[in-house]
Amino acid sequence: xxxxxxxxxxxxxxxxxxxxxxxxxxxxxxxxxxxxxxxxxxxxxxxxxxxxxxxxxxxxxxxxxxxxxxxxxxxxxxxxxxxxxxxxxxxxxxxxxxxxxxxxxxxxxxxxxxxxxxxxxxxxxxxxxxxxxxxxxxxxxxxxxxxxxxxxxxxxxxxxxxxxxxxxxxxxxxxxxxxxxxxxxxxxxxxxxxxxxxxxxxxxxxxxxxxxxxxxxxxxxxxxxxxxxxxxxxxxxxxxxxxxxxxxxxxxx
Length: 253
Fold this sequence. Notes:
Elements: H1 12-23, E1 33-35, H2 43-55, E2 60-63, H3 83-100, E3 105-110, H4 118-130, E4 135-138, H5 144-154, E5 159-163, H6 174-180, E6 184-187, H7 192-209, H8 221-227, H9 230-239, H10 246-250
Parallel strand pairs: 1-2, 2-3, 3-4, 4-5, 5-6
Helix pairs in contact: 1-2, 2-3, 4-5
């Protein structure tokens, strides 16, 4: 989003703006799970941020127990706040949702495994569950056995599994996660890493050979715009009596 390392640099405004854009690209056909990091402050700030996410049409968000100067969950040296501070974040988020009478889902995330160990993670998630979190997220499993154990210890409360390929946790496939009992999975690098690799290859080819390698693939502006809703936009214009975009369908762009 900002082109910078995940070191807690993104602000609440940055995250709300990005979530709003993604959630409303096609608001009727998919639901967005958004990261809320630490909530960006104390209970007052968390309340404000939750309300922003609700207005942005976000379906669910996870809020974590790292310190404000946080980092990606798959970097070393993570530090977490106290048990009481973590629960204050969960209580503030839950209260904001209830006050707004919204159906946005609250995902309680703990990153304590690296610093304080597995048992503390379970203690924190059980408390978050008791305070009204809809889903739990234990970030940074150290083994597949640990992941399966967490699902069993917290059942029937649903757990979300975050997969980050080449991160600190073992790779767990969809079938393996389903067998363990996970209810939700997100693949945080599924779009970012392949896009990076493809762009790196294209720009490397451009530097070395003077071409990108895109020619001949059939991927041009029209193909990309169709993916981004060109046909639907033209139909909306025509149904309203507009004629500005009729030629787009018949004339190659």
